[in-house]
Amino acid sequence: MSGWRDRAACQTGALLQVSTTSATGAAEVFFPFPSERELTLRAKRVCQGCPVRTDCLPEALDNGYDHGVWGGLDERERRELRRADRGAA
Asked: Which residues form the 4Fe-4S Wbl-type domain (predicted)?
């Protein structure tokens, strides 16, 4: 059974297009230290054209993923989105 993660851009060659060195892998790009803004921006570029971005973001929000880039949003952006959702409820 194939899930949405199998079709994610971060699991395909799209990651190679934003990596500047062969040593930079998915973990480093999608789960950078907060001070590594350039890696966060690289991950977001991969997410921009991802066919499953709309599956990925709810996965992170519903499960409280606090680290990394999911669905094109970093930790801070997801926190703000959750706050806004709570405020609207």
From this structure: 21-80
Mean predicted confidence (pLDDT) in 28-46: 83
**What pLDDT, on the 0 to 100 scale, is given for residue 59?**
94
Tell me the CB-side half-sphere exposure of residue 1, using CA atoms within 13 A: 1
More confident residue, 18 or 46: 46
Q: Which amino acid is at 5?
A: R
In DSSP notation, 44-82 reads HHHHHT-TTHHHHHHHHHHHT--SS-BTTB-HHHHHHHH
Contact 17, 47 (CB under 8 A): no
Q: What is the pTM of this model?
A: 0.77
- Name the residue ranges covered by the structural domains of the chain: 4-88
